[in-house]
């Protein structure tokens, strides 16, 4: 289905006339029967209707907390009142969070029934969530990577089966060279998903569309796998198909390509959850049930709410930065089979990037900003605030400062709290120059990716609600003199 925002240009539309037909001009007399009074009646009816919906939703949340989460009535009532969660930097007490994400496989007994005791971590991913830039980086570790676990050389995915989350944190963190936090752990939080987790999530959101780039034909009745796809075709996959697609490893690329497919499916699911708002609402109860059944984490409810709320307007391009630790050799052992000898130099680069800056958040020197010429910078301005006319106002302001505005459009949603500046050019400090001239010091700068619209010389500006707040007072004067 075509997204609504694709058919609207520049700014949120005004609501249509409630009475149908052409709108009445202010100079025309009201219709017979007291148009003004009738209008007020309509407004009152709408207001009362909205109030009833809001009250119903509120008590629905309260009831859900009592009957589903087994909270006391006062606790559920208090939680339902917290509509706007605290920012994650305040909740976690830091600007960035490192999360260990593990997908565990199932073993099967002699009757073909699944069981997860002593299961290995079939998927290993480390996520860095950066709060100021609302972006995420992923680093995957191949499950057959050579590591020392329990004093012996074996596959790194044995860490979870031998010692659960605690040993996995220690082994994977040491392998990557991650620093330890105040609690002596390498990762701030963990998320463990069983093998059915992705399958149930995909089913809960009505399936996903996946572009397949190679032929896949594999059957393993013991492992409950039946994978059959043709290359260069798009499939609408249900949960079982998506799970098989992610687990397929019987090609020349084997585990590295398998890991890429895992990252691909995660990104597609995130994209659908963000775009299909109606689908999201229709299936929210089912999604909650899926999470409760298949996910184990040490994040509490407050932390989950805070992260969900803070990243709801994040650009999914920023959440799709994923890399995999490669290998330079294969070691054959009699006790653990093939072990992948990791590429130590590449691993060090990936971890340095994971620990380093996410986008440009350090103030640039005035001389560097001055070197950027607005006349050479092309902009795409998008309204992400929901405030009518804001994208047009920003476009006019930047054009007066000499910038070239190629287009004005709506963003993918009107829920952006923070203005986003996304340079798709390698010109140094171009994002910082735009931010300085825009007059919103807290605007986030993050590099654009292939999914950002426009040619590679374009800077995309997604106007958030923070600009509307800043525009309510005299805008700061840019320290950079315009060239035109």
Kindly describe this structure.
With about 475 residues, the chain is α/β, with parallel strands linked by helices. It folds into three domains: about 45 residues; about 270 residues, LCP protein (Aminopeptidase, 3-Layer(aba) Sandwich); about 110 residues, Alpha-Beta Plaits. About 35% of the residues lie in helices and about 25% in strands. The strands form seven sheets. It has a six-stranded mixed sheet with strand order 13-8-1-4-5-14, sandwiched between helices. The chain has a five-stranded mixed sheet with strand order 18-17-21-19-20. Helix 5 packs antiparallel against helix 9 and helix 6 packs antiparallel against helix 7. It is globular, with a radius of gyration of 26 Å.
Précis, in short:
This protein is of the alpha/beta class and 484 residues long. Helix content is 36%, strand content 23%. The chain is built from 15 helices and 21 strands.
Short key terms for the protein model shown above:
484 residues; alpha/beta; Aminopeptidase; Alpha-Beta Plaits; six-stranded mixed beta sheet; disordered C terminus
